[in-house]
Amino acid sequence: MKLAVLIGVSDYNSQQNLSASKNDVKLIKSMLDLSDEYEDILYIDSDTNTRQVKGRLSEFIGRYSGGDIDELFFYFSGHGLFDGSDFHYILSDFDSIKIKSTSLENSELDTMIKSLKPKLTVKIVDACNSGVSYIKDPAALTKHIEDSKLDFSKCYFMFSSEDAQFSFADSHLSFFTKAIGEAVAYTAENSIRYKDLIDYISDKFSRNENQSPVFINQASFTEVFIKNITPESKKVIEGALSIISENKVEVKKQPLKELVIKDAERYFTEGKAMGIYESIPDSVKEQFKFKGDARELFDLIVETHENYDDVPKLPLLAEWVDKNNDDLFVKAKSERKERSVRKPKNKGLAATLARMHTWMDDDEDNYKWVTEYYYSPVSIESSLDCTYKFITVLAKSKYPNVNSTKLYILPLMSKTRLVILSCMAVYKPSGWDSEVLIDNNIKWTPHTIELIASGDIKKHLGILAKNFESETLTPVLKSFNLVSEPDGK
């Protein structure tokens, strides 16, 4: 028996709506319907709040508990978020302050799927970045997906992009899902394997530096996606793809000069751009004002800092700058480091073992330890002529039984955009009259604002202020049992 769960979330309360998601999930369903191989398909493209989706998903999984499941096919199109430890499928009522109770966690989904004990699990995720991204190990998402495969007998996991990237779409279809449809519509065979999908998508995105799909496989590459593809079914899929012959497309070209002049409006002069940059501290003081209980318990202290010396997790930030700095007036500074690596003594042996995917780690006769040198980003350096490098907002506790907190705001500038990086850290008591900052678990969050839309800076700072107040006050409320845990289903 083959089962499928298809979820497309287009409408969001606090995120950008994704008109393509409904079409994405509709396209995938049309292909599964044409295959006529699935016993039951859970299809969700409306009523996509968290409780509604989790309720229908739980009921569907429960209905087939104990059955003989040959394959479980899962597809999702919508916003996604990887927080460094788990991937979240973002649903319509998502709240960045209550991530767990307003999203479907990948670990939660895996637990449900594993309860069915499917012989093959297929998970295809076309997730557009939610905008609530974190700076973390660039390979963390891939490692998370890789680790999760160990819980399944056989599996194919396909994610539309790496964590630090966005997944792109037009108003009709997401490009990743469209590639799946094209792979089926254009195949010369009357069947198509999951490996064929992976190959087609890989080729499609091979020259796209902005979107690199992630594929994790634990199967024989013989598993078939659709067994019987007829000419009629191909026409149906082509219709869904809205494929138009190139000779029927008329493109109205604009003069090059007009395009250049229009795009040049995004570029600010140094004086105008620096005026925006230097106004940020005053905007922070204006937006950060605690209310109610928080105002009674904390004093707010806003400070600017002239260098990056006290920035927490600076090497992690430097690595992000090193990989994401195409135009920002900042660069990563690297240090030469060394490490010991174990390598085969004989180059011919190394090549043979690599082909065989075999490494005899306990064979000391064939291996040697080698010192390897490399450069690692450790700090950042701004080329701006500015009065400050970053801003801190300290919520200083007025009472000994309440912990202080601190928010870091670090703006980076280019000719066209401003990237505001932020993170929060908490204090813990270290003596009778002293406390120490705990920054082990902080997460830097980048937010990009075009200079031409500089009015959005105050809006973003207002959101940061609201979240900072909530995250500062919530632990105090919990300690006095004045707030209940979210009632997630």
Describe the overall structure.
This protein is of the alpha+beta class and 489 residues long. The chain has three domains: 2-248, Rossmann fold; 270-328 and 382-479, Alpha-Beta Complex (Aspartate Aminotransferase, domain 1), CATH 3.90.1150; 330-380, no CATH class. The chain is 34% helix and 28% strand. It is built from 13 helices and 18 strands. It has helices at 19-35, 50-63, 106-116, 140-148, 175-186, 194-205, 231-241, 256-264, 270-287, 292-297, 314-324, 347-356, 456-479, and strands spanning 2-8, 40-44, 71-82, 87-90, 103-105, 120-129, 155-159, 192-193, 214-218, 224-226, 298-305, 330-344, 367-382, 390-397, 405-413, 417-429, 435-438, 445-450. Strands 1, 2, 3, 4, 5, 6, 7 and 9 form an eight-stranded mixed beta sheet that branches. Strands 11, 14, 15, 16, 17 and 18 form a six-stranded antiparallel beta sheet that branches. A hairpin with a 3-residue loop joins strand 15 and strand 16 (417-429). The longest helix has 24 residues, at 456-479. Mean pLDDT is 85; it is low at 130-139, 163-169, 243-251 and 354-361.
